[in-house]
Design the sequence.
């Protein structure tokens, strides 16, 4: 497995809408393994392919260590995912591997149903609530070219950009 470099704001690729994955080939399966490896190494709970500079509709999440005292892994990969139901609302302070040192409270749907293909190409439909629902919605935003900073006011976004450029 390979650790993939994660790109960060303001890389323009992050604003791009990712394209559909045409078929789940052996290289895609290896890519999914690398995505998990990269996400775990970076201590993230989710990662979209575009964050490793591949604008394809593929995401991985694992909120296991946040929801479960046993810290068991709950890895989920979805290819060409779509949210088919969203209900309720929940506020949570989110971070993003592509937006260093930024945490913003964002309102999301509390309960969602998402469907797509798993890493083997099998159709999957997943009901998610709370943190898992938040993680899916955060990664779906990435696939649509939206990132955490887009939830900031222009003023705050500019000051965050300046902060980053000073580093
Ligand atoms: Zn993110």
Sequence:
């Amino acid at each position: 497995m390979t650790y993939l470099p994660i790109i960060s704001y303001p890389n323009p690729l992050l604003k791009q809408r990712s394209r559909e994955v045409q078929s789940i080939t052996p290289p895609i399966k290896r890519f999914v393994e690398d995505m998990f490896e990269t996400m775990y190494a970076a201590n993230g709970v989710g990662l979209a392919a575009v964050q490793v500079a591949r604008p394809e509709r593929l995401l991985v999440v694992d909120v296991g260590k946040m929801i479960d005292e046993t810290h068991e892994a709950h890895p989920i990969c979805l290819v060409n995912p779509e949210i088919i139901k969203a209900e309720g609302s929940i506020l949570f302070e989110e971070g993003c591997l592509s937006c260093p040192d930024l945490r913003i409270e964002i309102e999301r749907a509390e309960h969602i149903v998402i469907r797509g293909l798993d890493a083997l190409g099998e159709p999957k439909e997943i009901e998610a609530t709370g943190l898992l629902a938040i993680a899916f919605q955060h990664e779906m935003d990435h696939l649509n070219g939206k990132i955490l900073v887009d939830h900031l006011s222009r003023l705050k976004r500019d000051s965050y950009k300046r902060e980053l450029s000073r580093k």
The mean pLDDT is 94.
